[in-house]
Amino acid sequence: MGDYHVHLHKHGPYDGEGPPPGQYPIDHIEAFVETALSRGADEIGFTEHLYRCVESAPVLGTWWKEDPRKDLREYTKSYVASERVLSLERYVQAVVDAKDRGLPVLLGLEVDFFPETAEAVAEFLEPYPFDFLVAATHWLGAWGLDLPDQVFEFNRRGPVEAYEEYFRTETELAASGLFDVLAHADVIKKQGVFLPQPPEDLYEELAVAAARGGTAVEVSTAGLYQPAREMYPSKPLLERFYNHRVPITLASDAHVPGDAGRDRDKAIAMAETVGYTERIRFRKRVGEMVPLD
Ligand SMILES: [Zn+2]
Ligand SMILES: [Zn+2]
After folding, report:
1. Angle at 6 between CA 89 and CA 174, to 5 degrees
2. Distance from the alpha carbon of residue 65 to the mean position of ligand 2, in angstroms
3. Fold for domain 2-291?
């Protein structure tokens, strides 16, 4: 049982906790591994954010630039500039070194999905020795849809339109087959904005697309600690994925060692409730089904 979504650096300005941005001392990696193992995980997949790595600037481009809303454009431009302080090369080397030392770690990445650049991004990542890639829709144009500072945008475009736009893009990601796992598949709810009824049609389309694209989905406990106060995906959405035999991984989305493997018992319990008995594990981007627990 792995934890397939773990970051080695926190967001925001460096506050002195953990190593400075872009540094990867082995004891920091070990601290994540130790915590996850103590909670019953048997391997840790690190998934640094691609957009935070300086090398991603040319390939991801300036996705906010064409958005008609000036306030969102300006916010995102400066947000990305402040967050882009990590190095893909050093990250990859650090995890590969940890693996060579015999630590139960996997090399992953959290890739930002934009329909316009997805193929170029997949090609850019091809030469690296990744075990798996999780991918996420974090932005719709210049709108950082899961950021607390931009939650006002739900009112401006309306929650229904926001959900539809999000799921349209997420469905495109799932269908593309370019990446291995959908990260936090219904992250549009993160700031606690829900529709009066779960959007079952949108759920169904997403699950069908994932099945066709051969894209797995993570069961993530991170949402329990956000205003949404529930796991990603919600149970009704996870049921859709199960109906279409979409494989799952387990994820904490930890950004500090103490959160690695957090609440994995809850993730397993929900997966079992909807019928899952297996999960997918990855080596060099090849998946294999193994027992859930
Ligand atoms: Zn994410
Ligand atoms: Zn993440």
Report:
1. 90
2. 24
3. TIM Barrel (3.20.20)
